[in-house]
Write a structure and sequence with these properties.
The protein is α+β, with helices and mostly antiparallel strands. 56% of the residues lie in helices and 9% in strands.
Length: 217
């Protein structure tokens, strides 16, 4: 059955890979599954047809036959549990990898998004100058904890897993801010994720989708 994702018809980041469909594309490339992409405009995301498959009117969604999923973490977990390459065979290691997936979206991503959105959307607000340092401090605290845990390792828990895929995807949002630069091991960690051939294919596919230019072969 054909897998179909929804993605922004034109992503706000202009094809830099920060929209959440990229992490699902990456997972699909890691496990070697073909997929189609259906573009959705901001207006269409709030209309009944899309709300029927994503109750919060966002992207991505995942359709495979009668199965419809939303939330990027849920979709990546679904793929990882059913196809080799994203979760270890060893049960305890598998459970730890899933814990890192949850840590990426529940512990790391909220303060990062708060900080990023504040810089983009709230510069004209009277509280901006006072709130921004607090938001930055929360991000720095999480980065320090993650850096300590990663140490000199290549990946979070042994071999690359869906936990790393989700964590790298979240950390990429900080590139423009320079906050990662204080943790060279996290900079190298993100670079290792981006260097994976599956990530490269996913990134180029979403870039081509957003720019209208063909992806390199």
């Amino acid at each position: 059955m054909t897998i179909t994702l929804t993605a922004f018809d034109r992503s706000p980041d202009g094809g830099k890979g920060l929209a959440r469909d990229t992490r699902v594309r990456w997972a699909l490339e890691e496990v070697g599954l073909p997929y189609d992409v259906r573009p959705v405009s901001f207006r269409a995301m709030k209309e009944p047809a899309h709300l029927a498959i994503h109750p919060f009117g966002q992207i991505p969604t995942y359709e495979e036959g009668d199965l419809v999923l939303f939330e990027s973490g849920s979709i990546v977990l679904h793929l990882a549990e059913r196809h080799a390459g994203l979760l270890p065979d060893d049960a305890p290691a598998r459970a730890r990898a899933i814990s890192w997936m949850f840590a990426a979206v529940n512990t790391m991503e909220p303060p990062i998004l708060d900080f990023a959105n504040m810089r983009i959307q709230e510069r004209d607000k009277p509280w901006y100058e006072a709130r921004l340092p607090l938001a930055e401090e929360r991000v720095r605290g999480r980065l320090s904890q993650l850096s300590t845990r990663l140490g000199d390792a290549d990946w979070l828990d042994g071999a690359f897993s869906a936990g790393d895929l989700m964590m790298v995807s979240v950390l990429l949002r900080l590139r423009a801010s320079g906050l990662l630069d204080d943790a060279p091991n996290l900079v190298a960690y993100v670079a290792r994720g981006e260097a994976r051939p599956a990530y490269q294919r996913a990134f180029e596919a979403q870039r081509a989708f957003n720019t209208g230019q063909p992806a390199p072969r």
